[in-house]
């Protein structure tokens, strides 16, 4: 493509709305423009890069035996009512009515649709396994859309759904997807590690998230410093710290006027956080649940929710609910004589001696409390693992980083097939629900993540395989006929062999062209200037030093780069 | 692809919901499945064909110098309020609110978006011309979605928007699109003729629709029997029939109790429809307008609307409005003493003598009425041309056929750029509005039209270039190792040179495989059976006789077909 025919929208200034590198650079390079909060238009340069990512995904999905499909984005409410998710999905779902007042939504995900397709189209075990995927626009009305296409409300997702006749089949389908995902993210040249993820709440039997490290990520990811272990903090089991054994002392009720927080209590009692057990009160689908963890620990709500058998809405109790459960204002809850439906006690608390809890009386705490003697509850792991704790796999220390999920693979099992009566006839003539898996990749988020991991002070640094253009041919002076002739010849030759080449034939200073080329991140650059009198041009990789090469060597030099990156030109 | 891994969803029965060939065949071949009224899912076979059509469009658009773009489907109300269309677009627009109660719609078209992009990104005439296109999902809440993807509520459209500095530039951009469209529909092998279309109401200066003849089409298209003239009936000018001259007679008021319709009047007065002039009363954006045409003619509402300077809402008057205008019940309106804001008189009526009209009094008509002597109005062409009338271009007879619009090219001029203040700086430093064009192709409708024009009693008959698969290799007996070996070898060889080949390795009878292959419309078929002992297989084009050819000749035979169709394998 000739730049004189392109809509170039590079910006020299960093737009005020952008906080992270990828967002800034996608705006500055003219890849995207905001249409509304969390809703973006893809400009030609952005779309070209997006399509490269899509093509990689498509190739690897096809190679893994999946078949491409395309479902509608507008979905009828009835399907979601069948699965029970119409009422569960909250404000995140865009809802609308048609002219006949029928309810629809914009699909935030498509489990229901593909389960419906399977129950209508697949009758026999002979047709299994089937894995259907689509690259399609999804809608989630995020409370806080941010970071450009990294967290947007209209976005492109690759979602796949596998249908198997048994668990062994699902395991195979799942592993194929895991392998495909590793290849996809490798080809995109992003460091996206599969980490163990929670699957309890959605009712599956196995799950992994592909996470890229990112300071602005929405998840905390636990990585072992020694072994391969990696897990979402939601999932990573904690190891209780062992307290030193003490003789059990008598309970003491102490007046603690207006002293509510752990910080205030530590000061008041002149001790450490580890001597306290916090009692947090939740409303879990209408039931009142108290959760106890050590004073310095954080409750892990996913673990709590799973322990309760899968809670849909888990919220901190209201002041009224706290008052009803404790007879006290917020800040004085404790396990003794608390009126709740369930009391969950973190296993670390069971092992503590003579600790301090709220007295369930405004202005009082109780000292020397001990599990078993003074109260009992359901003991389990209800807290977040912390930096430096033991790796659940090898026992070495773990580190915790922020991460962004770019992919997710998930063994759904029969959750949807049972709810929606999606069955097939097995080898013995028996009706059975499909064993399902689902597999997502945030396509637009992957694109942003590539930029997040590949940029410098001058702009984007595209990996060759996803670069919207491979090479930029820049005549220094377009009014110099000889330069234009050489540049055009190189451009045409590269184009003819299938290289994505752009010719910057704009009437602009060379400096402007170089800056645009770097901002857009084009991996290779050929500058056609005065050296053509010696039969030479300048060749430059985006982040390397400039080389002077013979005009006739340009094509081979380009091919060399493709070879180096193990890519074929097509 | 191996059929054993494919989700095959062929149906032997014709689904009751389908009325036209393409809809029946898309369902029967397993290309689409209905999700809700007018909303479809594309099954793997359907999506593969759809992508071939998209690729043809993309190639020709790129070749014509247009650049691909991707706008969001969810659009903020503000943009539409700027152009004034938020209030104009009626129930056809899907509207929704986000969690913050802000108004959005699902884009039925994207003029506003691209005008907005242009005003933000294009500053100078130096950047012009620009033509941006997208292949994107559109939403129109049709009152009566029908015929599968031919008239659906969620559909894929290619829409392009050109921006030029002057009218000459627009003409060039428009003609490039016209040429590209002709190539696109040729490559899709559908007979889609460009016909003149009305452009007055939307405010442009030129427009053509690409129409395919179809009994279930929504438009009447006028074709000349002798020359190239073709126009939408909305646009085609009529030629007034010349009445035989008569002496003007005196007016006679005649009692016509309960006689209202032209049919009843013809009987009552024992004369022909041509002796009557109908007076129809409309509400045109709040004004009351009467339109007179000869008794046997149909009012052309587009012509009426244009004559009134572009009406947004033109509706038949209510009973109350008729009463106010005529002092009579419906059925007795006439031009004499009628109380309307405007009286439009078709030019044919001006040339009639001694005709009969309503008396504006319930139960009465007036005979011997003559234009000029008894009433006056704005004379013009307000009726539909009819079969057998004169061609406006050459004077030969015209035919009228039903047609479906698959494409539309349109000179918008400055309608949107002026409304939305989208300007650039011209050569003289002056601010000017962009001169715009817009160009649409119904992608999913084009796919259906291909099937509509290419099928027989056994199924679809794909043109090679848009066939989801080019060739089907069918081993007669998959348990015969020799047959499977030959079939697999042919399959692999064709695949390796880039042919879209499918191997029907399902454990089914050959007859079932043949039937599926024909229903799916795969253009070539190789049957691998007992003749392999003689080194032979059967080769069959979808609608030709079977040939017996040598195994080693299969690849060349396939290449021959590509050559015959002027296609390269890729």
From TrEMBL, chains A, B:
Catalytic reaction equation(s): tRNA(Pro) + L-proline + ATP = L-prolyl-tRNA(Pro) + AMP + diphosphate
Alphabetized UniProt keyword annotations: Aminoacyl-tRNA synthetase, ATP-binding, Cytoplasm, Ligase, Nucleotide-binding, Protein biosynthesis
GO MF: aminoacyl-tRNA deacylase activity; ATP binding; catalytic activity, acting on a protein; proline-tRNA ligase activity; transferase activity
Domain Aminoacyl-transfer RNA synthetases class-II family profile residues, every copy: 38-463
Transmembrane segments: none
Database matches in Pfam families: HGTP_anticodon, tRNA-synt_2b, tRNA_edit
GO biological process: prolyl-tRNA aminoacylation
Enzyme category, top tier: ligase
Cellular localisation: Cytoplasm
Top-rank taxon, per record: Bacteria
One cellular component (GO) term of this entry: cytosol
EC number: 6.1.1.15
InterPro entries for the chain: aa-tRNA-synt_IIb, aa-tRNA-synth_II, aa-tRNA-synth_II/BPL/LPL, Anticodon-bd, Anticodon-bd_dom_sf, Pro-tRNA-ligase_IIa, Pro-tRNA-synth_IIa_bac-type, Pro-tRNA-Synthase_IIa_type1
Complex and partners: Homodimer.
Role of this protein: Catalyzes the attachment of proline to tRNA(Pro) in a two-step reaction: proline is first activated by ATP to form Pro-AMP and then transferred to the acceptor end of tRNA(Pro). As ProRS can inadvertently accommodate and process non-cognate amino acids such as alanine and cysteine, to avoid such errors it has two additional distinct editing activities against alanine. One activity is designated as 'pretransfer' editing and involves the tRNA(Pro)-independent hydrolysis of activated Ala-AMP.
Similarity comment: family membership: Belongs to the class-II aminoacyl-tRNA synthetase family. ProS type 1 subfamily.
Comment block on domains: Consists of three domains: the N-terminal catalytic domain, the editing domain and the C-terminal anticodon-binding domain.
Name of this protein: Proline--tRNA ligase
Gene: proS
């Amino acid at each position: 493509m000739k730049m004189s025919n392109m809509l170039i929208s590079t910006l020299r200034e960093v737009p005020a709305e952008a906080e992270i590198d990828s967002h800034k650079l996608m705006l500055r390079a003219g890849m995207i423009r905001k249409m509304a909060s969390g809703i973006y238009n893809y400009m030609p340069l952005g779309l070209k890069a997006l399509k490269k990512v899509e093509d990689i995904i498509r190739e690897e999905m096809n190679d893994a035996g999946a078949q491409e499909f395309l479902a509608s984005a507008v979905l009828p409410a009835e399907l979601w009512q069948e699965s029970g998710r119409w009422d569960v999905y909250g404000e995140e779902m865009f809802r609308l009515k048609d002219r006949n007042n029928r309810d629809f939504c914009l699909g935030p995900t498509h489990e229901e649709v593909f389960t419906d397709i399977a129950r209508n189209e697949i009758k026999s075990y002979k047709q299994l396994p089937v894995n259907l995927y689509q690259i399609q626009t999804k809608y989630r009305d995020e409370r806080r859309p941010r970071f450009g296409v990294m967290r947007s409300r209209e976005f492109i997702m690759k979602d796949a759904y596998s249908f198997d006749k048994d668990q062994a089949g699902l395991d195979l389908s799942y592993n194929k997807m895991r392998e495909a995902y590793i290849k996809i993210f490798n080809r995109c040249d992003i460091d996206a590690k599969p980490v163990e993820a929670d699957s309890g709440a959605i009712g599956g039997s196995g799950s992994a998230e592909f996470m890229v490290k990112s300071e602005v990520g929405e998840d905390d990811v636990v990585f072992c410093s020694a072994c391969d272990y990696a897990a979402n903090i939601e999932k990573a089991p904690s190891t209780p710290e062992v307290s030193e054994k003490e003789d059990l002392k008598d309970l003491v009720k102490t007046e603690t006027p207006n002293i509510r927080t752990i910080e205030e209590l530590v000061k008041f009692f002149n001790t450490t956080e580890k001597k306290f057990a916090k009692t947090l009160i939740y409303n879990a689908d209408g039931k009142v649940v108290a959760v106890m963890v050590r004073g310095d620990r954080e409750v892990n709500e996913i673990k709590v929710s799973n322990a309760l058998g899968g809670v849909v809405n888990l919220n901190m109790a209201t002041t009224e609910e706290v008052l009803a459960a404790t007879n006290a204002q917020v800040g004085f809850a404790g396990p003794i004589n608390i009126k709740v439906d369930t009391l969950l006690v973190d296993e670390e608390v069971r092992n503590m001696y003579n600790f301090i809890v709220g007295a369930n009386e405004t202005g009082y705490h109780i000292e020397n409390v001990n599990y078993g003697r003074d109260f009992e509850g359901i003991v389990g792991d209800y807290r977040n693992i912390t930096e430096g704790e033991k790796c659940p796999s090898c026992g070495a220390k773990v580190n915790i980083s922020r991460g962004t999920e770019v992919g997710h693979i998930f063994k759904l099992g029969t959750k949807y097939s049972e709810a929606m009566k999606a069955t097939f006839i097995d080898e013995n003539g028996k009706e059975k629900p499909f064993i399902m898996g689902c597999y997502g990749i945030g396509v637009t988020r992957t694109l942003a993540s590539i930029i997040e991991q590949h940029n410098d002070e001058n702009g984007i640094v595209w990996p060759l395989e996803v670069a919207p253009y491979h090479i930029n041919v820049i005549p220094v002076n377009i009014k110099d006929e000889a330069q234009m002739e050489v540049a055009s010849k190189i451009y045409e030759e590269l184009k003819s062999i299938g290289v994505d080449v752009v010719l910057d034939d704009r009437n602009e200073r060379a400096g402007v062209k170089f800056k645009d080329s770097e901002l857009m991140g084009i991996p290779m650059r050929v500058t056609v200037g005065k050296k053509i009198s010696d039969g030479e041009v300048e060749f430059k990789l985006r982040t390397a030093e400039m080389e002077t090469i013979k005009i006739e060597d340009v094509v081979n030099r380009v091919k060399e780069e493709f070879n180096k990156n193990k890519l074929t030109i097509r």
